[in-house]
Amino acid sequence: xxxxxxxxxxxxxxxxxxxxxxxxxxxxxxxxxxxxxxxxxxxxxxxxxxxxxxxxxxxxxxxxxxxxxxxxxxxxxxxxxxxxxxxxxxxxxxxxxxxxxxxxxxxxxxxxxxxxxxxxxxxxxxxxxxxxxxxxxxxxxxxxxxxxxxxxxxxxxxxxxxxxxxxxxxxxxxxxxxxxxxxxxxxxxxxxxxxxxxxxxxxxxxxxxxxxxxxxxxxxxxxxxxxxxxxxxxxxxxxxxxxxxxxxxxxxxxxxxxxxxxxxxxxxxxxxxxxxxxxxxxxxxxxxxxxxxxxxxxxxxxxxxxxxxxxxxxxxxxxxxxxxxxxxxxxxxxxxxxxxxxxxxxxxxxxxxxxxxxxxxxxxxxxxxxxxxxxxxxxxxxxxxxxxxxxxxxxxxxxxxxxxxxxxxxxxxxxxxxxxxxxxxxxxxxxxxxxxxxxxxx
Amino acid sequence: xxxxxxxxxxxxxxxxxxxxxxxxxxxxxxxxxxxxxxxxxxxxxxxxxxxxxxxxxxxxxxxxxxxxxxxxxxxxxxxxxxxxxxxxxxxxxxxxxxxxxxxxxxxxxxxxxxxxxxxxxxxxxxxxxxxxxxxxxxxxxxxxxxxxxxxxxxxxxxxxxxxxxxxxxxxxxxxxxxxxxxxxxxxxxxxxxxxxxxxx
Lengths: 442, 200
Description:
The structure holds 2 protein chains of 2 kinds. By secondary structure, chain A is an alpha+beta fold. Helix content of chain A is 53%, strand content 18%. Chain A contains 12 helices and 10 strands. Chain A has helices at 4-55, 59-69, 76-90, 93-109, 115-123, 135-151, 155-175, 185-197, 201-217, 226-236, 314-351, 355-367; strands at residues 244-251, 256-265, 279-288, 296-301, 304-307, 309-312, 382-389, 393-402, 408-419, 424-431. A 4-stranded mixed beta sheet of chain A has the order 6-7-1-10. In chain A, strands 5-4-8-9 form a 4-stranded antiparallel beta sheet, with no helix packed on it. In chain A, strands 2-3 form a two-stranded antiparallel sheet. The longest helix of chain A has 52 residues, at 4-55. Mean pLDDT of chain A is 87; it is low at 1-5. Chain B is an alpha/beta fold. Helices cover 37% and strands 27% of the residues of chain B. Chain B contains 5 helices and 5 strands. In chain B, strands 2-1-3-4-5 form a 5-stranded mixed beta sheet. At the A-B interface, helix 4 and helix 7 of A face strand 1 and strand 3 of B.
């Protein structure tokens, strides 16, 4: 048995090392805050540039600005998702799908847990974790890819996306029980068209039924699309599809996520402790909806015209998803702040009167606390669909965009759209709010 | 504080770990070597399908039956092989293997597909204008096919977060162009159990 006096020098050494480790930890936190702060600023400022260029239909400029952001490491997925979206807007569907495929593979890889990231997110903040996409975003990837294939006239590959979606949606629904907004109703509606065009009428009918159930269950802010009910009735009666132009509009931008500071009571506070420790200051993400520029679309060719229907409330789904995640984000934030405060206090106690170190510890604890404001920024606010039945032939098809005041806000013409008998032809566009006029510098 | 010796060791270890990932490494492999990375359809699946289909189609009774009624080799054209699976699969790999086996067997002729014919016809039209009389090829001498090869790849996926069972079924059929009769059907089934990594 060792004598207490004999182990004293060893204990002293261990204590010294522990103090060193604490200092090192606080330095790491400080470095993380230094790295995090300018990174966040660059991300949001940079993304405003991407959105502004896209709104001005300068897609090359938007892609250039996105590339300049150099989203990598934990933000790598955001690069692929946003780049694929811009390429799709540009009409470069094959290249867009190459990026979506890379995004999908990365999402699969990120399903596995990274211990380092988990520790970093508890020690520093949630942005240290790799962005793996919200479940609703993961589902949207399949509709974007399918739509790209459809616009390339590649039905077989669009159908592959439809089948992959079915597996993925099943997994997501199983992991998010009760989250009816994750039914993927719109994607299933689109997939039903793919299956029918492939001659898989039973699959098309089943997809339509699931889409109808999904729309009804997800308590949408819009009615179930009339055209979906008509399709279901037609397929159930065994009638063939009419030839038509299917137009899809990505309307505006989805919500942006800002940072908000909230104060919550410290569950680890005990009487006798410093009163400053009674409350914890947390940085949490804040959901900010953006206005939608287009109220409805009128799709016309020759003397025929049709009005669009909302088929997906991307904003609404994102908000429900956000609200479901918020309690866990706050709980994690509380645990993180308690841990940071304990470490900082212990380190400061060890450092004694070292004012510089105490300052660094305070900065590290508070400045490293950042909310995770990442999202697939270029997702639309909602998606509208207009289906114009036309006899076989070649048409110049015009999509006219009406704003909330029923005034025309924009127009897009698709020249020489070839409609084949009994077939659907897919075209799409996007419309973003014009960028705000820069304020004068005086 | 950590001694200089420790710091040096840490810096060296970090440098070694960082630099080891810098160089691209290429290792040649035998084409029959099996290496599954993601669990998706890969070269091994394609090879297993082509081996099975070649063996089955060349030994099937249809060829003997055809030989007993005709003095010339049957001509086959490749039609549509539909991908009805959950993956973006390139069906050309095993179809090209099958075509090659047909041609090299000396018992089956393979005629160019619709897309290939267009290029050849363009060339023949160009010859009409530019080639010498003795090398020019006339229009209207193309060999017509007796049979069309059609088929599909189907898949069934059963998945949880951590595990997947993927089942593929490849069906190929030779259909007589004269009377729509199916003279040969080949089938290959593949099944995989994929376990996802829990940690990365």
